[in-house]
Amino acid sequence: VLQCNNYEVIDLGVMVPAEKILQTARLENVDIIGLSGLITPSLDEMVHVAKEMQRQGFTIPLMIGGATTSRAHTAVKIEPHYEGATVYVTDASRGVGVASNLLSAELKDEFVQSTREEYAEVRERHKGREAKTKQHTLDAARQNKFNWGRYEPVKPKFLGTKVIDDISLGVLVEYIDWTPFFQTWEMAGSYPNILKDKVVGEEARTLFDDANRMLKEIVNGQWLTARATIGFFPAASEDDDVILFADETRSQKRETLHHLRQQNMKAPGRPNYCLSDFIAPIDSGKHDYIGAFAVTTGIGIDAKLEEFERDHDDYSAIMLKALADRLAEALAEYMHQVVRKDCWGYAEDEKHDNNQLINEAYQGIRPAPGYPACPDHTEKAKLFELLNATATTGIELTESFAMYPASAVSGWYFSHPESQYFNVGKIDKDQLQDYARRKGIAEEVAARWLAAHLHH
To answer: pTM, whole model, 2 decimals?
Structure first.
């Protein structure tokens, strides 16, 4: 959009380290730095970039945008770290107006000042909400943990890892959740109702038709390749950790997964969840298991994107990225179903249609490192090591633990019938210190990775 309005844009690509962004900004003498985030690791990386801009003495404006960002996140987490102008851009169409204001000698001062005042109000409201939130101590939260109960764990049909690389893209089409696709294009509404929406219905139908036309080309032309690696491991919980064993003798620890517990005070009878609660305690005498997965539908996407870029076909490039992301999520959903009904087999008689799958009506969960139930991205490195994921799927982890290709999903499988998704929320200093100790890292390092979740 900026290029169409005569702005020169230097596109550094995806997963770019802060140092490269700032080095290029100096060499090219740019007027504005823009950061776009489509996945959660980018939120913390944006904070890091802002801090580095301040440390290195930058004064040029910083524009923030992308699907995972928000005005509140920009105001609370990013702007306070940089004295230069920091502005959240709600969508691409507004980027030109914001850039114009930031570069205008007449308009800039008033625009920046009004933005700062607006963000200060957002921070005050946020501070007020946090002050009202009552927290347990970590010990008290652990006393209010979820009771694992009498569940009899089911042993998976194999232990160790398995690579699946003969997955048909045509099969995955049936598992697509279309609602996030429209959100990518900044259309509010859920599928299929959005197709009949009075405001955006016509535009949504056109977009949906274009998507399905490209989807047929992707499938028939084999533009992309789907790959998956799954694994199952003997496991037991110990407080907030999950211990993985080398084999069924359970005599040798292979890995320890560190998790976080909710600390906010709940209504009576409601537990403070931690993912470790859904694995049999080590002293229970029960032999439990945990699963892991890494899937991608992004293999082959770069060649096609380069073709679109040569043709200056931005629409098709964005469409392909959006569809590849949807297919990756569809592959994760498909593999979870295969695991439940076959590979693990704890729900062999399950019969759910796609809507029920989207609404997670099944037994078990597949939380991903970096998301609300397990917000620490660094734990993803353990998952990748257990699965040998980079060698088997082609997915690589960046320095910020984002996955590349971006059309990828990874996480853990839990089978407990009462396991559920939850948000860890804010943690206090006692849990931060305990977590750093358990992981064997400095408290400052833990604080950086968990910055968005610190209550103190």
So the answer is: 0.83
